[in-house]
Every structure is written in structure tokens, then in C-alpha cells.
């Protein structure tokens, strides 16, 4: 009897990525945690840019055929393919940098071939230069079998196979950022911001056009998610110009890779450096700011920052903690007329005693628009509670994003989402929850309704969820921005009818005692039936 042909299973993306991670962990000379990550992400970059080039060539051939031209004709090839240009931002790759060349290279020559590809890309494209470290593969010099296994796994990651993935590039980057960030700290510059949290910020501040800035941009996730939001609203990502800065060199390169692959116009500066000690975008003002700064960062301050103009209108932030330094830095870069910022900070910033005067002046100057406490366990890398702040340079109202906004001066909207912990994420190494699209839309509706004409701020509230608060009340509470100080939380114990509850409990106890007495009588009868006296046992 002939054996049935074994059906080939469609490869699972998580399985492929897991295999790559394990091959690198087991390989000799694969380097540190971060070097493994950089090697892996560089391979993924080469794979994606190579596939995009191949798709671009196929599309170009189809276009030529539709025009009655022969793509195989020598003159046509010389005119259109030798130095191809693509309308969608696809990069023209020299032969040694194409994935088809890499995947067909014998295992003993792979390390050299990969570095030749990187060098060729760096010398042929100004935009792609600086996205990676040349010599990455020959310096590590993985054994032929090890590098071949990893390259073969990466070769399985294709838009042709995983075409239904909403964001394949982002999905792969997200996996490795998460996996390689788990053992890192914020001080090391590695921090993974979940997709749903970025989506929440983007949905609230709506960075549809103009300039968008992130002073600690990491891998560029804020920019990518904003572009996705614009696309979902049938917008044009070419209307967004992104600016960013990143201190950690490897993460800076990753951001450049990520943005280049997406065709997003960007300016991350020429180098990786600290936003505080070397502001690469000094003097520029932006329409939107989105950020997830390092929480409670120490070691940010030096004496040269004492009289820095970024906080000249306030007090100098404490050297022990950068939270308010980030706030004032972002405020200094917001367009004075209508700039909006959405960013995350640890909850301690809501009521720190050593930043009281700065916080008081921010509130009095009407810069704070909304404070939203998020659920715990949203982040893989930290358990601390986190707050989303929204600053707005214009709370006076008027037309904005096709909406008529009311005057919200001297009001702040508070939300508390700590009870939204029902959506657990499966398969994580620790407890994690996520925000569903419906929840994100609900938060956005609460916020945008509060902003809009026709809403009475003095009556805008829902117990245990949100409330609009006058600055006069915040002053009475010592300028604290802790939402639980203002939102009504119901004591559900007071709703209990204790007399009715006690009657129910007593009835249940009587029934239990009756059953126990019945069971005891049956046991005594059973013993007597076989000739034992129960009192003698």
C-alpha cells in the first residue's frame, strides 16, 4: 500500500522566530544578548528589503509588458533595470545585496556574503547608511552550520506566505524587541512599548498630518503606529514628517531600519545621543509629540543643564529623577499655538513632592489636558503602574481635525482604567493584559466627547471611570494629579443588605447541620447493623 504523501504545514511565524532565537542562543561566538538581537534584526532587514526589491522588479516587468515592451530585451533591461527606480520607495539593490544572492551562497561563505551585502547597501544609499553595523557577521564569525540554519529560517518569512498579517514587518520586529528586551532595563535603553498602548496614544492625539516628534524614539514604534492609524483613516503617510532621537546606538540603528523599510520620511539626527545633553532638534517645534520615556531615569543630569532654557520658565527638575525633565523638554518642542503631546510616565510623577512647584505651574498655565491611569501588567518589562499624560497648547477650543472643540481652560479630564484587566494575553512568560480595540475606542470617545462643543465639563463624569475637574478643586487637593482623588469610587460593601444576607447564611448553615446530622445517623445505623456499638468505637 502506497504511503500517503505527508501534507506540508504552513509555517507558523512565531515558530520560525522562536527557532531563530534558539539557534543564536546555542551558537558559539554569537555574542551578548544585544549582539544576538542586532544580528537577527539585520538579517530580517536584509530579507525584507530584498523581497521588496524582488516584488518591485516583478511589478516593473508587468508594467512594461502592459505598455507593449519586452522586459527581456537587452536595451529595455539596460534602460529600466540596470539602475531601477520605483515609485513606492523600494530601494534598488546591487546584485550582492539581493536576498536571492544571499540565500544561494554556500554556508562557509555566508558570513562574508552578508557583510558584503551590508557594505554595498551602505555605500549605495544615503538613507540606509547607519541602519546597521558593517562587519556584523564576520566579527561574530558563526560556524557555517549555525549561520546557515538562521538564514534558512529567515528565508521562510515572506509576505507571500504571511500575506494576511496586518503588519508583517512590525510583527517580526515586535517579537524580537519583546524577547530581547525582557532582561534589559530602561537605563540600558531597551524598553518594549506594547502595540495597544501606542495605538491608544495615537488614537487620542490623532497625528494625521504635520510634524511628529519622539525624543526617546527607541525602535520607532510610535512613528510606525501613527502611520498605520493615518492609513486606516485613508490618510497619506507622506503628509507626516517624523523627527526623533535615541541614545542607545543599536536601537537608533533599528529605528532607521524600521522607518526606511516603511518608506516613512524621517530625521533621527546623524548620531545616537542623549536628548538632554545634546538635543539634536534644538529650536524646532512640532505639531505632535508621542513618547514613552525611561521611567524614573537617574543619571540624566549634569551641571551644564542648571540654566537650560527648556525649564527657564519653571524650576530645574530634580537630578534624582528625569520625569519632569522629559515633560518640560517635550513642552519646549510643542508648537506654541496648537501642539499636542501624549506620553507615558510612572504614577509617581502625579504627586511627587520634589516636583510640586513645576506641576503646580504646568496646571496653572493650562498645559495639562488629560491624565489617564492605565491597567497594570500592560508591559512585559515592568510591573509598575503607568500614566498617560496629554499636554495641549490650546485648550481654548475652535475647529480641529474636522471637529468643533469647546473651551476647556481650567479643566482637566481624569480617567482611571486600572480595573480593565480582564483581557489576559496567553503564552507570555509572566502575567500580561492588553487593551482591546473596543476599549481604545471607548477611551477615545470619552476624551473627544469631553473636548467637543455641547459638553458641560462640570457634569462630565462616570463613577469609577472618568471625571472632568476644575483647577480650583485640584488646588484644594494640593496640586495632585492622581485620578483617584477626583473620580468617585463606589463602596460596593454599602450596597449589601446585611439583614437579608445574614438570614441567607443562617438558612444555609441550618441546612448543612441537618445534612451532617442525617449522615451521622446513617453511619451509626450501619455500624449497629454489623454488630458494633457505635459508642465503643
Report on the architecture of this protein.
The protein is an alpha/beta fold and 537 residues long. It has 16 helices and twelve strands. It has helices at residues 13-26, 33-66, 74-80, 99-103, 110-124, 136-140, 144-155, 168-181, 195-205, 221-232, 249-262, 323-333, 356-364, 437-451, 471-476, 498-529, and strands at 210-214, 240-244, 266-267, 288-291, 340-346, 368-373, 386-392, 398-400, 403-405, 411-416, 461-462, 466-470. The model is unreliable at 182-190 (pLDDT under 50).
Specify the helix fraction band: 40-55%
Mean pLDDT, nearest integer? 84
Separation of the first and last Cα atoms: 70 Å
* Helix and strand run: HHHHHHHHHEHEHEEHEHEEEEEHEEHH
Contiguous runs where pLDDT drops below 50 for at least 5 residues: 182-190
What general outline do the C-alpha atoms trace? globular
Biggest sheet architecture: 10 strands, mixed
- Indicate the structural class: alpha/beta
Gist?
It contains 16 helices and 12 strands. The chain has helices at residues 13-26, 33-66, 74-80, 99-103, 110-124, 136-140, 144-155, 168-181, 195-205, 221-232, 249-262, 323-333, 356-364, 437-451, 471-476, 498-529, and strands spanning 210-214, 240-244, 266-267, 288-291, 340-346, 368-373, 386-392, 398-400, 403-405, 411-416, 461-462, 466-470.
Amino acid at each position: 500500500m502506497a504511503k500517503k504523501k505527508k501534507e506540508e504545514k504552513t509555517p507558523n511565524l512565531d515558530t520560525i522566530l522562536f527557532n531563530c532565537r534558539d539557534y543564536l542562543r546555542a551558537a558559539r561566538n554569537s555574542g551578548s544578548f544585544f549582539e544576538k538581537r542586532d544580528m537577527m534584526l539585520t538579517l530580517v532587514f536584509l530579507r525584507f528589503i530584498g523581497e521588496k526589491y524582488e516584488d518591485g522588479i516583478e511589478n516593473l516587468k508587468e508594467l512594461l509588458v502592459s505598455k507593449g515592451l519586452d522586459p527581456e530585451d537587452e536595451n529595455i533591461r539596460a534602460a529600466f533595470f540596470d539602475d531601477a527606480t520605483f515609485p513606492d520607495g523600494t530601494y534598488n539593490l546591487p546584485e550582492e545585496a539581493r536576498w536571492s544572492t544571499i540565500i544561494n551562497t554556500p554556508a562557509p561563505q555566508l558570513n562574508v556574503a552578508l557583510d558584503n551585502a551590508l557594505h554595498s547597501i551602505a555605500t549605495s544609499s544615503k538613507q540606509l547608511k547607519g541602519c546597521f553595523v558593517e562587519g556584523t557577521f564576520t566579527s561574530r564569525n558563526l560556524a557555517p552550520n549555525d549561520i546557515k540554519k538562521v538564514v534558512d529560517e529567515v528565508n521562510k518569512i515572506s509576505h507571500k506566505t504571511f500575506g494576511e498579517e496586518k503588519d508583517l514587518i512590525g510583527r517580526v520586529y515586535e517579537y524580537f524587541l519583546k524577547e530581547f528586551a525582557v532582561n534589559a532595563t530602561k537605563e540600558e535603553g531597551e524598553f518594549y512599548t506594547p502595540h495597544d498602548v501606542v495605538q491608544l496614544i495615537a488614537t487620542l492625539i490623532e497625528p494625521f498630518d504635520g510634524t511628529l516628534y519622539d525624543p526617546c524614539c527607541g525602535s520607532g514604534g510610535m512613528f510606525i503606529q501613527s502611520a498605520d492609524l493615518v492609513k486606516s483613516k485613508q490618510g497619506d503617510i507622506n503628509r507626516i514628517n517624523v523627527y526623533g532621537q535615541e541614545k542607545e546606538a543599536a536601537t537608533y540603528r533599528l529605528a532607521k531600519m524600521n522607518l526606511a523599510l516603511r518608506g516613512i520620511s524621517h530625521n533621527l539626527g546623524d548620531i545616537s545621543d542623549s536628548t538632554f545633553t545634546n538635543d539634536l532638534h534644538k529650536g524646532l517645534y512640532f505639531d505632535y509629540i508621542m513618547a514613552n520615556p525611561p521611567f524614573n531615569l537617574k543619571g540624566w543630569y549634569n551641571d551644564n543643564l542648571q540654566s537650560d532654557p527648556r525649564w527657564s520658565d519653571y524650576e530645574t527638575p530634580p537630578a534624582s529623577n528625569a520625569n519632569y525633565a522629559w515633560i518640560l523638554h517635550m513642552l519646549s518642542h510643542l508648537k506654541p499655538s496648537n501642539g499636542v503631546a501624549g506620553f507615558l510616565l510612572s504614577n509617581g510623577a502625579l504627586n511627587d513632592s520634589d516636583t510640586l512647584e513645576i506641576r503646580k505651574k504646568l496646571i496653572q498655565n493650562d498645559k495639562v489636558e488629560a491624565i489617564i491611569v492605565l491597567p497594570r501588567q500592560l508591559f512585559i518589562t515592568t510591573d509598575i503602574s503607568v500614566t498617560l499624560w496629554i499636554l495641549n497648547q490650546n485648550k481654548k477650543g475652535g475647529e480641529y481635525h474636522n471637529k468643533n472643540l469647546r473651551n476647556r481652560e481650567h479643566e482637566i479630564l481624569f480617567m482611571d482604567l486600572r480595573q480593565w484587566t480582564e483581557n489576559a494575553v496567553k503564552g507570555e512568560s509572566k502575567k500580561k493584559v492588553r487593551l482591546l480595540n473596543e476599549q481604545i475606542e471607548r477611551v477615545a470617545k470619552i476624551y473627544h466627547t469631553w473636548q467637543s462643543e455641547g459638553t458641560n465639563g462640570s457634569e462630565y463624569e462616570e463613577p469609577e471611570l472618568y471625571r472632568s475637574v476644575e483647577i480650583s478643586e485640584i488646588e484644594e487637593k494640593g496640586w495632585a494629579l492622581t485620578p483617584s482623588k477626583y473620580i468617585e469610587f463606589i463602596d460596593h460593601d454599602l450596597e449589601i443588605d446585611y439583614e437579608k444576607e445574614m438570614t441567607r447564611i443562617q438558612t444555609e448553615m441550618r441546612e448543612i447541620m441537618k445534612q451532617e446530622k442525617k449522615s451521622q445517623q446513617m453511619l451509626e445505623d450501619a455500624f449497629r447493623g454489623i454488630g458494633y456499638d457505635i459508642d465503643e468505637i
